[in-house]
Write a structure and sequence with these properties.
Order of helices and strands: HHEEEHHEEEHHEHEEHHHEEEH
CATH architecture: 3-Layer(aba) Sandwich
Strand order of the largest sheet: 1-2-4-3-7-8-9-12-11-10
Distance between the termini: 36 Å
Oligomer: single chain
Shape: globular
Radius of gyration: 19 Å
Number of domains: 1
CATH superfamily: Alpha/Beta hydrolase fold, catalytic domain
CATH topology: Rossmann fold
Length: 350
């Protein structure tokens, strides 16, 4: 069984939850610092091992940088945010933020809290944009990442773009133009973007990223095999799901609100299977600790079956809908960038 096949059974419900409509985000209006932008780099040819095609050079300035690069002849858009405190002489952390269905890198730029976090922590953030596909179930074109089962959603004969190649290219570009700390490279995703992280980035690029964190999706499975065919990888993952997540409800068939009490969550067939799938993927046992921190219930798995320091955190948030929580865009007041950043830093090797 190849790596692609080994993941198919765990994602049978994942795509249905991400297909039918745009994902929820309230406009936050993030902006670059008030000071005028400062040019940071001269046009820099991509590194020799880069997969860049037809784009001779790039230059960046502090603040927002909107760019286009060609992958297999197709123009791919992305935004890079460079914090005002960036120092080319200092190794700097890097984050990729992957959007949900019918969204874009710009929407993540404007509506998550990562720009503010980048300024506070001196963090470079890349907001890539997926490709527009014609879907079987809906008219028009819809932005999607290549997560599991995308081929079943799109019009037959439509070519799926190589989003791993796109990601590798952006990583090469970042390393060519900035002093990136290789021990602090992270990825986050929302909804369909979280599905891309789970089913593509983690299996294929776990050696390139330090840790991952997602919202609005998870390794939901139908119970077949109980995770035994999953190939474990050496990385760590943080997952946030809300009890009112309408897309997860649609994809799994679970009625809302989802359980919030620890015993009810772990005994629920869907969430229990997600825990089995995810701990198997990360080489962890099903032993866990649990805590309640209003409005959340947090499960932590860190007992390795292979001698690694991997960790899986699953946070169920009471009252959270299908959204990437940014503090002021959700009733519970959860801020993913705060939670995820602390988690990321806890997995940096010294």
């Amino acid at each position: 069984m190849n790596a692609r096949q080994s993941y198919k059974w765990i994602i049978c419900f994942l795509t249905a939850a991400l297909t039918l409509s745009s994902c929820r985000l309230a406009n936050r209006g993030n902006a670059a610092p008030a000071d005028p932008p400062t040019a940071l780099t001269q046009p820099t040819v991509a590194a020799p091992n880069s997969t860049v095609e037809g784009d001779a050079a790039f230059s960046f300035q502090t603040g927002r940088n909107d760019k286009t690069i060609h992958i297999d002849g197709d123009p791919r858009e992305f935004t890079v945010y460079v914090p005002s405190g960036y120092n080319p002489n200092t190794p700097t952390p890097l984050l990729f933020m992957f959007h949900g269905s019918n969204q874009s890198g710009n929407i993540m730029y404007e509506n998550t809290d990562w720009v503010n976090k980048a300024e506070k922590e001196t963090l470079i953030v890349i907001f890539p944009t997926g490709w527009e596909y014609p879907l079987v179930s809906e008219p028009g074109l819809h932005e999607k990442w290549d997560s599991e089962n995308l081929e079943k959603e799109i019009v037959p004969g439509t070519k799926i773009k190589d989003d791993i190649k796109f990601t590798r290219t952006l990583l090469d570009l970042a390393k060519s133009n900035f002093n990136i700390d290789n021990k602090r490279i992270f990825a986050s995703g929302f909804s369909n973007g979280g599905g891309f992280v789970l089913t593509r980035l983690i299996p294929k690029m776990h050696a390139d990223f330090t840790a991952y964190a997602i919202s609005g999706t998870g390794l939901f499975g139908n119970g077949e095999g109980n995770g035994t065919s999953i190939i474990p990888v050496n990385t760590s993952l943080y997952v946030i799901i809300g009890t009112q997540d309408e897309k997860v409800s649609l994809g799994t068939g679970l009625e809302r609100p989802f359980p919030i009490q620890p015993d009810d969550i772990v005994n629920d067939v869907v969430f229990h299977q997600m825990m089995v799938n995810t701990t198997t993927l990360l080489g962890l046992s099903m032993d866990y600790s649990v805590e309640t921190d209003s409005p959340s219930t947090i499960f932590t798995f860190r007992n390795s079956t292979s001698g690694t320091k991997n960790e899986f955190i699953f946070r169920m948030v009471k009252g959270l809908f299908h959204e990437y929580p940014a503090g002021d865009n959700n009733a519970p007041g959860v801020n993913a960038s705060d939670l995820f950043w602390d988690f990321f830093l806890s997995h940096v090797e010294q």
